[in-house]
Design a protein that fits this description.
This protein is an alpha/beta fold and about 475 residues long. Helix content is about 40%, strand content about 15%. It contains 15 helices and 14 strands. Helix 3 runs parallel beside helix 5. The longest helix has 26 residues. It starts with 9 loop residues before the first strand and ends in a 6-residue tail after the last helix. The protein binds 6-O-phosphono-beta-D-glucopyranose (BG6). One of its GO terms (cellular component) is cytosol. InterPro entries: GH, Glyco_hydro_1.
Length: about 475
């Protein structure tokens, strides 16, 4: 057992193209779901309200030339500022930088014969910049940025054709970045599909009777695509390490009532474990098959799908961890609070963030032990942090003790999990530079160590400022978390 973090622990941060790049229609890029997600400034911060994405809302967005209410179209203009922004990550001493490639840049037509060279040149330079600073690039192949063209031409992941299109895209990336990129994530938070089908699977809800079945069918296609991408990556470069990823919704029983424990088990299985059992364990678990049977869900599979899933499991388990929740057999009588993508039952022992997400550092240690126990595969924490309102002072400082407190307590628990014997290989804090929120499209929901002077409507100088947490994280990396 190690004392504290191993010497080669991968400290860093993570961003996604669709929340950072902006330049949504530049150099041939086609539209994605985030580009058509309208910002609702009247959002109640403590209750999650999903803005429904429909063909009508997509068409209305396409016709809207004023981008004021479509913040992801501008992001933080990382498309043009990546060199300076990545240099700031390096200044903090990052060992790894997680970033995503936008599928809609590389194949703007969805099924183009050739990839878009302009897009690839941009990603060449992003990756070379990361490497030039001595950081390891970790690339997410698909991060919540479903190309609209794949919805309109093929109906999204419900159509098996997407498996081949995705593999073609992976083939381009694996070959182009061979020897440069070795850490990959196939799909960001694949388990979000149950609550955010349009966003991750491109399957629009038009009131179909079998919508849930469609979601699981689309998901099956993603499972097959990820397994085949893992096979392909290993064939192109045996050094490649391919991760699966879930957003871990850690769930406790509300009381010691046995029925609450059963609810907890069900929640944990169908929200979290099912996805990992398939992608890290290599099989559809019995409880999921039972769930499908009870719900009348039939998943159409090709003859060798299950064999492919079994043969090409992920090399490491990736997870994001933000919050935890509770499960109860008497849920109707309990209070709700907002959570990542969905509302959850409130835990009386935990404080919430300004957006109501329940802050639970001990839950991280619990989760790491829970997941490692089951798969014994290395775990990479690919996202963790807190969204908060920051104030930029006149002297250019931003005092963010709440962010430091959140991160410090979580990293301390991660350290304890490492000391428990869990093989945690890295930690990429979410949103090291402020970006547009995925869920609400607010700029004012900030995660960064670096403040970006831009408001929800795109106004501001766009200048970057180091927050107090910037210096704190720099010191934490330099001392490998020894002070915790
Ligand atoms: C994760 C996503 O679910 O949560 C990120 O992978 C997202 O893209 C993050 O930004 C935080 O969520 P939000 O809605 O606060 O941006």
């Amino acid at each position: 057992m190690e004392n504290g973090f191993p010497k080669d622990f991968l400290w860093g941060g993570a961003l996604a193209a669709c929340q950072a790049e902006g330049a949504y229609n530049v150099d041939g890029k086609s539209l994605t779901i985030p580009d058509v997600m309208r910002f609702n400034p009247k959002l109640d911060r403590t209750i999650t309200k999903q803005l429904k994405i429909t063909q009508e809302s997509i068409d209305a967005a396409k016709a809207e030339l004023d981008d004021t209410y479509y913040p992801k179209r501008r992001g933080i203009d990382f498309y043009h500022t990546y060199k300076q922004d990545i240099a700031l990550m390096a200044e903090m001493g990052f060992k790894v930088f997680r970033y995503s490639v936008a599928w809609a840049r590389v194949f703007p037509g969805g099924d183009d014969a050739e990839p878009n060279e302009l897009a690839l040149r941009f990603y060449d330079d992003v990756i070379d910049t990361i490497i030039s600073h001595g950081m390891v690039p970790l690339i997410t192949i698909s991060h919540f940025d479903m190309p609209i063209v794949l919805i309109e031409k093929f109906g999204g992941w419900y159509n098996r054709k997407l498996v081949d299109l995705y593999l073609k895209y992976c083939d381009v990336l694996f070959n182009r970045y061979k020897g440069k990129v070795q850490y990959w994530v196939t799909f960001n938070e694949i388990n979000m599909s149950a609550k955010a089908g349009p966003k991750t699977l491109g399957i629009l809800d038009t009131g179909q009777e079998n919508y849930e079945e469609m979601i699981f069918q689309g998901l099956h296609h993603q499972f097959v695509a990820a397994a085949r991408a893992t096979e392909l990556a290993h064939a192109i470069d045996p050094e490649n390490k391919i991760g699966c990823m879930v957003a871990y919704f850690t769930t406790y029983a509300h009381t010691c009532k046995p029925e609450d424990a059963l609810e907890m088990q069900n929640e944990d299985r169908m929200r979290n474990m099912f996805y990992l059992d398939v992608q890290a364990g290599g099989h559809y678990p019995y409880y999921a098959n039972t769930y499908f049977k009870r719900r009348g869900i039939t998943i159409t599979m090709a003859a060798d799908d299950l064999a492919i899933i079994a043969a090409h499991t992920a090399d490491y388990v990736g997870m994001s961890y933000y919050m935890s929740m509770i499960a109860s057999s008497d849920a109707e009588n309990l209070e709700l609070t907002s959570g990542n993508v969905t509302n959850v039952l409130k835990n009386p022992y935990l404080e919430g963030s300004e957006w109501g997400w329940q802050i639970d550092p001990v839950g991280l240690r619990y989760t790491l032990n829970h997941v490692f126990d089951r798969y014994q595969k290395p775990i990479f924490i690919l996202e963790n942090s807190i969204g908060a309102i920051d104030t930029l002072n006149e002297d250019g400082t931003v005092h963010d003790p709440y962010r430091i407190a959140y991160l410090e307590s979580h990293i301390r628990e991660m350290k304890r999990a490492v000391e428990d014997g869990v093989d945690v290989i890295g930690y990429t804090m979410w949103g090291p530079i402020d970006i547009v929120s995925s869920g609400t499209s607010e700029m004012s929901k900030r995660y960064g160590f670096i403040y970006v002077d831009q408001d929800d409507y795109g106004a501001g100088t766009k200048r970057r400022y180091r927050k107090d947490s910037f210096y704190w994280y720099k010191d934490l990396i330099a001392t490998n978390g020894e002070k915790l």
